[in-house]
Amino acid sequence: MNSGQLQAMLESAWAALPTLLAATPVTLGFALGAMLLGLPLGFLVALARLSRFGALRGLSSVFVSFMRGTPLLVQIFVIYYGLPSLGITLNPVAGGVIALTLNAAAYLSETIRAAILSVPRGQREAATSLGLSAGQTMRLIVLPQAARLALPSLSNTLIGLVKDTSLVSVITVVELLRSAQLVIARTFEPFGPYLAAALIYWVLSSLLEVVQRVLERRFSRGT
Fold first, then answer.
1. Among candidates 12, 65, 16, 37, which has minimal Cα distance to 157?
2. What's the rounded Cα separation, in Å, for the pair 197 and 183?
3. Cα–Cα–Cα angle for 195, 158, 71, nearest 5°?
4. Contact, 79 vs 98, CB < 8 A?
5. How far is residue 219's CA from residue 149's CA, in Å, rounded to a whole number?
6. What is the per-residue pLDDT for 129?
7. 49-67 confidence digits (pLDDT tens)
8. How many CA atoms lie within 13 A of 72 on its CB side?
9. What is the pTM of this model?
10. What is the pLDDT of residues 93-126, one digit of tens each?
């Protein structure tokens, strides 16, 4: 590769940048939406896995095992292309959000479950002896400590979601990667747009890592 070819590739990356930046909010929207929806679902799944009822534990364990043991891309295909055969048709945005949410919930549930279990049992027993109900103990004693412990893993899940949103491009959602592909279809120059997309993913992940470190410092000062 000579300098002229390299310059042409870099120029194509620069030319694609405005189009890719316009699609970046879609990528962030998918990631944040899946995280906001996945957190409460993951919390419920975590509670189900900690339940005294065997059937509830079994069902939640199967859900987590299936979602973590199959590729996210296959899950997207099942939801978007498979459900119509059962009479359930989703638009690309809804299908992508549902797939990302379910996948994220499975991973978040394990993070939340581990954080809850890491809170010393003696604190729960002390809360019970003081007359707190199980709900009050969970809300006032367990969850604040579990949130601090789970924060790094939760942040990593969000960063992973930002990158995983690229998979919804296969169902024609015009997010960051799909936008790069559309540019390539017009220009027939793949290197520049893909490089620009990679740099945007990197910047987004780096910014989220900075936010994660700031939050961790604030939580640690609050302990």
1. 37
2. 11
3. 75
4. yes
5. 9
6. 80
7. 999 999 999 999 999 999 9
8. 24
9. 0.92
10. 999 999 999 999 999 999 999 999 998 888 877 8
**Cβ-contact 153, 111 below 8 angstroms:** yes
Q: Alpha-carbon distance 71 to 54, whole Å?
A: 27
Token digits for 79? 């939801």
Q: Which residue has the tokens 């069902």?
A: 59
What DSSP designation does 190 have?
-
Domain with 208 in it: 3-222
3-state helix, strand, coil in the chain (%, to 5): 90, 0, 10
Per-residue DSSP letter, 87: T
Burial classification of residue 205, based on how many CB atoms lie within 10 Å of its CB (0-12 exposed, 13-18 middle, 19 or more buried): middle
Q: What is the CATH number of the domain that holds 116?
A: 1.10.3720.10
What would the two tokens of residue 98 be?
């549902």
Q: Are 72 and 167 in contact (CB under 8 A)?
A: yes
Cα–Cα dist 68/48, whole Å: 17
CA proximity to 205, closest of 47, 15, 28: 28
Q: Based on the structure, what is the number of domains in the chain?
A: 1
As a whole number of angstroms, the distance between CA 105 and CA 88 comes to: 22
Backbone angles phi and psi of 188, in degrees to 5: 60, 30
CA gap 150, 116 in Å, rounded: 9
